[in-house]
Amino acid sequence: MKKSYPLFLQLYYLVLLFLVSVTLFSTSCKKEQEVTLPVITAISPDSAYIGDTVIVSGKFFESYAEDNFALFNGKAARLIDGNESQMRIIVPYGAESGPVVIDANHRISAEFPFKIRSRGTVITSISPTSSEEAPLGSGVVEIKGKNFRTNDFLEGKAYVNFTNSERNTVFYATDTLLMIGVPQAARTGPVSLVQEGLTFTGPVFTVKEPSLASISPAEATEGMTIALQGDALFSINGFSINGQAINNYSVLSNTEAQLTLPAGLGTGDFPIVMIFGDMPITSEMKITLKPLTNIISTIYYTDGNSTYRRSIDGSGNEYNALLPISTSNRCMTVDRSGGKIYYGGFNTMALTNLDGTDFKVLFQTDPTGAGIVTDLEAVNGKLYWTDSNNNQIKSANADGSGTIQILYGDSPSDQIMGVFGIAVVGSDIYWTDQNSQKIGKGSIDGSGTPSFMTVSGAAPLFPLDIDAIAVNGTIRIYIVDQVSNINWGEPDRILWGNVNGTSVSLGSLNTLAPGTGGISSTQFLTLDPVKQKVQWADNSGYSLMESNLDGGGIITKSIILTSYVNFFIVE
């Protein structure tokens, strides 16, 4: 049976429930009203420069500094440290006078007024005022004024703008003086400073564009040096003719420059183009390029970084021209009939025309990337070379087709220990081995086991280059023996011996021109089968030497080399 209560008790419980509900609602509202907002009571100092440190005092900040954020007229500032009542803050770049507020873990304070002070930065002068006195890329400009922020400029937070070249850093700074190098890309226009997010504009820096007034001589050939007269030449950072960069040039003064003409420029009338910053300026002055004539001797040589063609005409004039190739090479060979030069280097085989144009990489000489070509020959459409890093003799088609064949050195039984030079004679290959101090012999197709030539008497101490020539039905082998590599201070020598038929004996080796002083420091030789001459590069005197095949008639050729020769070919 359902239990019932008297009416007065029911009314009592209803009133009690109403009072409890009102009490709970009142307590909840009171708790919401107790959320306190941070209060800023002071900022010291009450005004500051951008980048200065100020102290913000108040109450109800978060106890951990990282839970507080400061906004200077909407610009976020960096807090150094702080607690519930005080924080150290850096006035942010770009801030302007106006309200400061503190965000304490999403509790936002009321605004507090703050003034950003102006430093009154002023540029009073720049010196020099033009590129004639302060050339692009090398000149220095002094910027004078007041209220420069020294540390900001030295730390790269503030910088200098030239027209067409922004955000340039200074190398010297005080409150009243800045020193800066003139950037290569600068153009005529005002110099300005950017600090504290503000730009301060100064006087105009005038950039004078280079110009040419004369070329002497007006007609020239490759290898010749021409003189240029003009104005504002110090601002030039390069030249080109017929689309080819001129790497060998010097600017002697603001009005004088010299260019040495490389090979491969072609023939005809061409304007000289001056590179001004990143902009080419085509001069109205033209050079007439003519072909070489009456050339009686040509030598190609490399110093390992650059390759040159040096020619001599019937009147004794020399023309030393840099070939326009963009790779280093250790060795090369010239295929006159095919009109090509082949270059071997660090894992690369390449070719160009005889004037160095149309550079092309044929192939990588080793699939592992570890090949080093130290000597090279081109014979009947094939290339033969020594790989000194892998101690192998290799061959490939001269047009780059097909695959590379390892002729010798892929088997321990070949006993190749330190291969360097190579010579191809008929169906045979000869090579030098520095470590075993021997001369190897094998077939051009790689068949059979290689042999090592026997000698009577003294053997080579450190054999490098090797070449061969037919003399009265006999093959004569010539070897550069770099004695100085073994016995310091002793001169190098060239040895030679004869090979008869299939013999592997060189007999008793002969020394070419002993005691004449004509061979002192050399690495490479070449043989002239038409004139029956031996030629070698003397690195001690940078000269080209020549003798008869027996060492007689030794002379110094009129061709004078310009640097240490790593490899050379004489036509």
TrEMBL record:
Residues 38-102 form the IPT/TIG domain. One of its GO terms (biological process) is canonical Wnt signaling pathway. SMART domains: LY. This is IPT/TIG domain-containing protein. It comes from Xanthocytophaga agilis. InterPro entries: 6-blade_b-propeller_TolB-like, Cueball_EGF_LRP_Nidogen, Ig-like_fold, Ig_E-set, IPT_dom, LDLR_classB_rpt, TonB_box_CS. PANTHER family: EGF-LIKE DOMAIN-CONTAINING PROTEIN, VITELLOGENIN RECEPTOR-LIKE PROTEIN-RELATED-RELATED. Gene3D superfamilies: Immunoglobulins, TolB, C-terminal domain. GO terms for cellular component: plasma membrane. Pfam families: TIG (PF01833). Coiled coil: none annotated. The lineage of its organism: Bacteria, Pseudomonadati, Bacteroidota, Cytophagia, Cytophagales. GO terms for molecular function: Wnt receptor activity; Wnt-protein binding.
